Fold this sequence. Notes:
The structure holds 2 protein chains of 2 kinds. By secondary structure, chain A is α+β, with helices and mostly antiparallel strands.
Amino acid sequence: MKILDPKVPDVSIEKKWSTFKSSCKLVSPANKERLDIIVVGTGLAGASAAATLGELGYNVKIFCYQDSPRRAHSIAAQGGINAAKNYRNDGDSVYRLFLDTLKGGDYRSREANVYRLAEVSNAIIDQCVAQGIPFARDYAGYLDTRSFGGAQLARTFYARGQTGQQLLLGAYGALNRQIKEGKVKLYNRHDVLNIVIVNGRARGVIARDLVTGEIKRFSAHAVVLATGGYGNVYYLSTNAKGSNGSLIWRAYKKGAYFGNPCFVQIHPTCIPLHGDFQSKLTLMSESLRNDGRVWVPKNLEDAKKLQKGEIKANDIPEENRDYFLERRYPSYGNLVPRDIASRAVKERCDAGYGVNSTGLAVFLDFADSIKKLGKETIEKRYGNLFQMYEKITGDNPYETPMMIYPAIHYTMGGLWVDYLLMTTVPGLFAIGECNFSDHGANRLGASALMQGLADGYFILPYTIGHYLADMIKEKPLPTDIQEFDLAEKEVKEEIERLFSTSKTETVDYYHRKLGKIMWDYVGMSRTAEGLKKAIELIKELRSEFWKNVYVPEQPYTLNQELEKALRVADFMEMGELIAFDALHREESCGGHFREEYQTEEGECLRNDEKFAYVAAWEYQGLDKEPILNKDILEFKEVKLVQRSYK
Amino acid sequence: MDFTLKIWRQNGPKDKGRFETYEIENITPETSFLEMLDILNQKLIKEGKSPVAFDHDCREGICGMCGLYINGRPHGPDDDITTCQLFMRKFKDGDTIVVEPWRAKAFPIIKDLIVDRSAFDKILQEGGYISVCTGEAPEANSILIPPEVAEEAMDAASCIGCGACVAACKNASAMLFVAAKVSHLALLPQGKIEAAKRVKAMIAKMDELGFGSCTNTRACEIECPKNISISHIARLNREFLKANF
Ligand SMILES: Cc1cc2nc3c(=O)[nH]c(=O)nc-3n(C[C@H](O)[C@H](O)[C@H](O)COP(=O)(O)OP(=O)(O)OC[C@H]3O[C@@H](n4cnc5c(N)ncnc54)[C@H](O)[C@@H]3O)c2cc1C
Ligand code: SF4
Ligand code: FES
């Protein structure tokens, strides 16, 4: 076991980032032109980073698997983005945003990083407004804000229910400008499948051209991963179908440490499951909890009738409704953080109070708000979400309450990075959702967009320069060297292995099975026994996958099943590490709930003495246990207390 | 529910392509159109046949990646939705469903139902942005924008770049798509400065890439999943005139 040094400047918290910025190494404009950077991912993190690095003068190559950078999964973010502007004079400040985010994460994130995130948050809003992002405004033309879970003030900026779309289109615009200038070269419809390490440094990638199937080599002076989260290990999630953990996993296998893999966020307000063939779950934004009230019937008999379809929500009188979030958490009410809301929903449904045919749903009701504010206001705030809900379910949420249930949504875990956002492999950086990041054991709403853009616009451009200053003498690397041969060979061998099986069951069959194991044993509530079982089941399933998976057609042509198979192959290994990490963490914190460790009221029971660290796992080979390294979390600004939203 | 599917199959850009007919059974009404295709593909794979290639990603109507021409309508027989938001309850048991890719010269077919829409990216690269570098921005509330202006800009900015407008248009014009971006930025004070240059460059690129011209048939507006109004085309025309005189 190693104790990791996150390289945080040793000055007071509010001086750390400015100290770094004023003392880090710089690269001259002439030298920047000689340096190449690979960015994988065109989401908020990747697009903003690539655009900014291009503006600074570096040569950037950027990759995405979709047909256009604008389709990265950030596009789907609905609710909003946090910043400490304090425009409402409601008591916000950088310090308070920092505290809320730290507390929301159940004290499992690094103070210095979270503070920096809050510190640059305001510049993000300025930048986005200058790019022409049509944020919501009040009557006088000033920017409007709303509240999100885990906060008692309104610091969330939004563009209807399409904030991620608008922010991404802004970053995509900045990226397009650099593409036009020739500073960024775009490789769309490319799957990056391996990282090339030369003399201990990340110097390139191997990618598969998804149109031709050709395997290609790319070299650079540094590699930035911005590939998003790995929630699709669970098969059903709110992520896009192509969202994957492959590069996190490849980086891990090449020596980058994997931080807190078991910290996975389950979002309380998603449209419930409707059938076996279902391919994804749809999120209903957290912003809805501003005006929607969550309830189930007070009486079991009413719940039974709802489940059988004998009565409807509106048949249940006010006095027989249990607004359980308001009841259990009077000071935050419907706006408690996600992990807490999700568990409370599960608790009610497990007790038999679920309101749909499967018993796995609760109501999210807008009747009171419509009465108070009028239908028009509600429509203005959430029109597109209501429409989306109606298209999927066939129910009209203006008339009957929505039904919601928790679903896998976000991964707080990811590649371990130091204060410079660099992994343990020199020259390999990780930004956005794919790093273990600033959200500890639970992310607060509207803070992933903030983090992605903070990393890409305002942090990485400084920290990567500090690294590249020592690389200016390195010439562009030819790709016909041994290290590239080897990395390419690894990829081709895996592809060919996928075609030399008994061809029995499809990729989806295995992915669903994996997802079921993960959801049942490594989901909202976990036990040592269940986790051990999951590890065994995953191992079995993995060996079955490699024996029997059916990948049709040819390897080196357009082949969408092969794309899936490569991703699922990585999930099959990653799932095991998630369970292993969850087993080792003998405490409950944030989204990680171990049944053995709870308070009398069923809340998380942290163990700060033993587990106030980031678990940074080091790969040792597939059949060996990984080594646990620790990034010890020191809290100088806050006193650790049990989170309370009561 | 049971359906007969007539699906366009084309092995690559040079292949001539043809319709193939498939029967599919026991589909529940809550199944989405793309899930129905997933089920078909599972079946085809198990029969040793090649699955149907189609684009998709978010499956919630926002990424703009999906797009099929279904029974003669881009995104199929429901209003204000993308293909991934189409559900089988919109069809009748026993229906025959014809599925084709977008057809437009500027969107060459890659395989089966997948087309190459990079022409859209190329148009936006010509100026579909405000030229501000990271770090240059003034305080966000230093330039006020009336809410109705912000709302109208937001309407235009909702375009997801799916290409249904092009597929719906008999001239395969990209006018609605281009107008959405031109209008979004021209409405905002920050975007006005480059408005003239932007509109000229984007229109020139659109013409160069082989999109047809707009003859005001309004087919685009009807099929646009995000309700982008042709009033934005009128604004584009005004901006274009201003830019040239
Ligand atoms: C439905 C939904 C709603 C959300 N709402 C909010 C919200 O309101 N507020 C908030 O703060 N957060 C929200 N989030 C979370 C937030 O959207 C994400 O965490 C964030 O956008 C991730 O951005 P990213 O840049 O890290 O990655 P992504 O946007 O996921 O981008 C990943 C990129 O990597 C590329 N990529 C991945 N793997 C490969 C590979 N192997 N080869 C090549 N390219 C690859 C992809 O093509 C893509 O371009 C939401 C998330 C979801 C799912
Ligand atoms: S204008 Fe409408 S139809 Fe055309 S690309 Fe945009 S969203 Fe799609
Ligand atoms: S798959 Fe994203 S819009 Fe349909």
